[in-house]
Batch of 2 targets.
Target 1
Amino acid sequence: MEAEKIIAQLESILASEHVHTDDKTRKLFAEDLIFSGPPPLAVIAPATRDEVRDSVRACTKAGVALLPRGGGLSYTAGYVQSEEDAVPAVVLDTRRLDRVLEVNADNMTVTVEAGCTCETMMAATAEYGLRATMFGPTTGRYSTIGGSLSNNCMFFGSAKAGTSADAVLGLEVVSADGKVVVTGSGAIKNSVPFFRNNGPDLTGLFLNDAGAVGIKVAATLRLEKIPKGQAASSFTFGSFDTLIHAIRAIGQSGLASECLGVGPAPLGDEAVSDPTLHVMCEGWTQEIADAHLAAIFEIVGTDGTAGEPVVPNFIRDNPFSFVQSPLDAKGRMQIWTHGVFPLGRVTDAYDGFMTVLKDQFADMAALDIEASLSFACAGSAMMVEPVLYWHGQAKNLHHTGMTPVEDRAPEDNDAARRDACVRSIRGAFASMMDDLGAAHMQYGRFYSYASATNDETVALLRNVKRAVDPENLINPGVLGL
C-alpha cells in the first residue's frame, strides 16, 4: 500500500478539501475523550452514499482500514486504534452525511443520513407534531444518528421506549466490498422502510456493533406523536437504598418517560448531600400525565421527599443545550464508566461500584479526584454510571468537540498520576461489571465484549464478520474482533 496513491484516489472521489492529511487534523481524529492512538493516513468526509461506497472500495482494495466516526464523543476507543494493533487506516467522518431524507407522517417514520444529529432530526419531525420514540442523548446537538446506533444511546424517552436501537426500523449500510445493503422492509422490492421484522432481523446485526460490520449511511426510525401532557417531579432520599428501591419500582411500572437518579457529588466517606430522583411523565392529555405522576408519588411513598421539578423541567426545556462541554463546570476532565443491568441487580451494581471506589478513596483524595454516581431507566434495564472528575491535561477534542472552551492548565504536576489513577479505577469498574454480567452501550475497545461473551456467540459473530469483511478492514479490533 502506497499512502500517496490511496490519498490521490480519495481526492479524486471527494475533492481534496474533503481529504485531510495535515498533522493537526490527523492527531485530532486519533483521539477520543480519554484514549489516543496513532494518527490515520487521512481523514475523509464524504457527503453522499456514492462517495462513501467509492471511498470504501478504494480503501479496502488497497488494504487500508476504515474507522467510521460520528460526533466523536466516544470515551471507549470506538474509533481509536491502539499503538500495538494499529494498521494503515483512514478515518471516515460521517458528519457531512447530514440530511433528513424523509418525514413520513402517514407511516410514522423518519429517514435520515448517518451524520444527521439528533437535534436536527427532532426539529424536522417536530414540524409534523412527531418525534422518534427515543429522541436522543443529552449530547444530541453533536451526536449523530449513525454514531448513536453504532454505540447505542439512551435518555430522552428511554424509561418507556428503551434505547436508540429500539427505535430503528431499517438501515442502509455500505459493506467492505462497497455494496449498499438495505435491511428491514426497505429491502423488499416495491416496498418502503416501515417494518423492521421482515424475515431475519438483519438490522440488528449492524446495531451496537461499534461500526465493525459496515458503514451506516442512512437509518429509518419509528416516530410517535408528541404527547400533549407533561408532568414532572423531583424527590430527595435519605439513602441510596431508598433511591434504588424507588427508581427500580418506577422502571418496572413503565409510567415515566425519563427517570434519572443522581447521587451526591463528590461521593466519599461522608456524603455532602442526599441522592435525588428526577422523573418526567407524559400522556395524550394533561390529565393522563398527571395521573402517571400521581401513581409515581404512590410508588415513592414516604421514602422520598418531593420538591420542585427544576432539573427535569430544565432538561426538557433545553434538551440538547444544557450540556455544553466534555469538561465539567469547573473545567475538569470527566469520564463516564457505565454498566447496564437487569432491574433486579441494581443494588448489586451499586454495591460493586462503591466497593471499587472505597478501595480508592485515599488515593482519590490525595490526587483531588472526585466521583458521582447516577442511575437511569431504559425500558426493562437500568444504567448505573459513576463519573470521575479530575484536573488533567485536556485534549483538543475537549475544546473543539462541542462548544469551544478555553484551555485550563492542570493546577500542578500530578496530571500523569491522576490519569493513571483514573485508568486504574475504570479498569476495576470493568472487571467488577464482568463479574456481575453487565451489558454495555458504546462497547468500543474498552469494554470486553469478546472476552465477556460466551464462546459460541463470539464465534458466530466472528464468522459473520469474516463473511462481510474478510480482510477485517472495517474498524478492525473494535469489540475485540
Target 2
Amino acid sequence: MKLKIFFLIAVVYSPVFTQESLINIDFKNLNNDFGKYGNDTVKCEENLSIYTEFYKQKSFDSALESWLYLIRNAPKRTKNIYTHGATMFKHFIKNEKDSLKRESLISDLIMVYDLRNLFYPGQEGLVLGYKGSDIYKFRKSDVTSVQEAFETLKESFVIDSENSTARALNYYFASAAKLTSLKIMTKEDLIDLFSEVSSVIDYKEADLKQQNFSLTDNRTPTNKEKKQIKRNSSELKTLGDVRANMEKTLAPHVTCEKLDALYEPSFEKNKNDFDWLQRAAQLLRKNDCVDTDIYFMIAAQQYELNPTPKSAFNMGVRSLRKENFNKALEYFIQAVDGENDSIKKSDYLFYLAKTYYSMGQNIKSKKTALEAVSLRAGWGAPFILIGDLYAQTSRKCGENTGDLQYDEFTKRVGYWAAIEKYKYAKRIDGSSVDEANKKIKIYTEQMPDKTSTFQVIGLDSKTHTIDCWYKETVQNPYFSN
C-alpha cells in the first residue's frame, strides 16, 4: 500500500512546470519512518517555534523557511504543518504574478495535501475535498486539471458522503458542470450527480439545523458552543448557495416532463443497476414527480432488486400517491424498522404520519409526527402536520348544545391550537416560515373573534383547554389583564 501511495505521488508530481518546487522533496526516497521530531529534536523545536510565531502574525514569507525545515525533516511533528501550510501557499498563490512561479506554488499546495494524508491519515475524504477544490479553483482553465479535480472530488465524495463539506460539494458539481459543457460528461451524468449531491445537502442541512437547535433550546450556549453555532450557520449558508447554484444550472432539465423523457428510454438498460435506480427515484421524488409511470416503475424495480429501508420508503411514497394507504403503511413501517440513522428514520416516520393523516387516524398521525421530531430537533414540518390535524378537526371537536354562540366558539377554537403549532414550526425552522405563514393567514380568519371570545370565556382567561381527540391548553390571543 505504501509503495502504491509513493508511486501515485511520483506520477502526479512529475515535473510538468519549469519553476522549481519550494518544498522540493524527493518522493523516490521518501518513507514513513520519520520520528516525531526527525533526527534533531532541538532544531525541530526551534523551527516549530519560529514558524508558529511568524504564522500567528500572518508573516508567511518569514515563516516559510522554518516551515520548510519541518515538512522536510519532521513531517510528523504536528498536523498544523499541513493546515497552516495550505493557508500559507494559498496566500502565496494569490499574490504571485509570475505564471510559472504560480503554477509551481499550486503544485506545492497540492503536495501539502498529499503529504498530510500520508503522515496524518484518518481524514482522507476531507483532505481530498480540499485538494480537489483547490485544483479546480486554481486550474479550471485547464481541461486536464478539471478532470483531475473532478476525480479527486469524486473520491472524496465516495469516502465522506454525508460528511462532505459544502465547499467540496460545490466544486464537485462545478467541475462536473464544466466537463459537461466541454462534452466530456453527458447531461444525464450531471443530472445523476445532482441527485446524489442534493440528497447529501438535504441530510447535512437537517443535521446542522438539529445541532444548532440542540445548542440553543431553552438555554444560553457557552462560548465554545457559540463558535460551533457560527460554523454551522456558515456551512448552512454555503450549502444553500450550492443548492441554488445547482438548481439554477439544471432547472430547465429537471422538470417532470424532462425527467420522464430522460429516464423512460433508459429504464430497460439500467433496470438492474441499483445505484441508477436510487438516483433516479431520489430526483423524481425531490421534484415531486412521483405521479409519473416511470417513478412507479423505478421504485418497484429498486425494491425488487434490494428491499432496503430507502427502497421501501420509495415504495411507500408510490403507494401513498396511489392512495393505497395500507400498502403505504406497510412500506413506511418497514423503512422505519430497518433504518438506524436518526435523520433518515425521522423522514420515514414523517411520511408514516402523513399516511395516518390521509387515513383520518389522527391520534396515530400526531404520535408518529412527534416520534419523527424526537429524532430530529429543530424541524418544523411535523409541527405543521400536527397543526393541520388540529385545523381539519376543529369543527368536529365543537359542541352542539343549542347555544349557537357557544357552539360556534368551540368549533372554531381548534384553529388557535393549529396556529400555535404553525408559529412554533416557523420559530424553530426557517424553512417552514412560508408554509406556516400561509396557514396562519387562512386560519386566523376562521378562529373565534374577540367578541365571541369575550362572551364565552372572557378576555381575562389567559388560556383555554381543548378536550377532543387531543387535549391541548392554548393561549387566549385576546387575553388582557
